[in-house]
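Researcher: I'm comparing several assemblies side by side, and this is the next one on my list. It has 367 residues spread over two chains. Same procedure as the others: predict the full complex and return the structure.
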Amino acid sequence: MREAQELHEPQAPQSRQTKPSSAVVRDALGVGVAVGLSGFAFGVTAVGSGLSVLQTCALSLLVFTGASQFALVGALAAGGNPFTAAAGAFFLGTRNAFYGLRLSGLLGLRAAAKPFAAHWVIDETSAVALTQPDRRSARLGFAVTGVTLYLLWNLTTFAGARGAGALGDQAAWGLDAAGPAVFVALLAPLLTSTVERFAAGLAVVLLLVTLPLLPAGVPVLVAALAAPAVLYVEGRRARIRTSDEPETGVDVHVRGNGAGEADAR
Amino acid sequence: MNVWIAIGVTAVGCYLVKYLGLLVPAGALEKPLVKRLAALLPVALLAALTAQQTFSDGHHLLFDAKVAGVGAAVIALLLRAPFLVVVAVAVAVTAGVRALGG
């Protein structure tokens, strides 16, 4: 996952150096194999939550975005209705749209290829592709990570789902810790600055406060509001810092912007 | 049946947002606010999910062996352990603490 650390670094528009294909493939395989094998934990978790083997495998084949799958299974196990449960999983999946925004320019995909490439637009393929120095390496990294991860994730999901019964009590094996550990590992490289850490902290607080009060699946949606909230506060502070006007004027200016920015434009 | 509905809605929804991202013209990227939100939204969601799965059973807050396991995973990450090792450490520590009666 070390590759993911540079996910949010600005990319140089032109390649400064070319990267050997073997190095790209090695990076991609490392991520694909490591994350692909954790499909086992998903298979075990899903069957342990009451899904059938077929339902579990359908999720890995058709949804193929790990965090959403874990979230859906967790929400169903907690007794959420199918639409609230799906809403939480869907909302988590929306981050893949933002990866797509950055990838489409980088990979330069033809229109006909996009519907097929779309299924593989997830955290790991994006992390590998976005950290490559040029388009050729980005395409190679995306494809190799995508193939490896898709195959392994589905095979290990099936193995985990089939093996879940044989394991007996999964809690005794500590397998319920695999889901949150996967999320921690995905999150850690993204906490690059104070703003990111503050958003993460606020999201945790919002979740813990709302979890006992709101229906299953909803607290995660509420916690996601930490992102726009932190950006709003950051924007306000930046505006105050850039204003050199006398204090009374600054106050009115900021209040005006804060209350009705949309109206003013 | 409810489970199949949830699977169907999630599969269609998740695929469409992936596809939509690839379809949006590159110009939308130029807005700094969109860029910042795109970077920050996954951070908030992943943090919330981590907390939800670590400190609850979905409905109620609870503090059990899983907390020790996820804590160990964080330490493994700080020591720059590879992805699979991080997950394995979390599982092993959780199982260990439970075996000891935690």
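Model: For your comparison table: Chain B touches chain A through 74 residues (CB under 8 Å).
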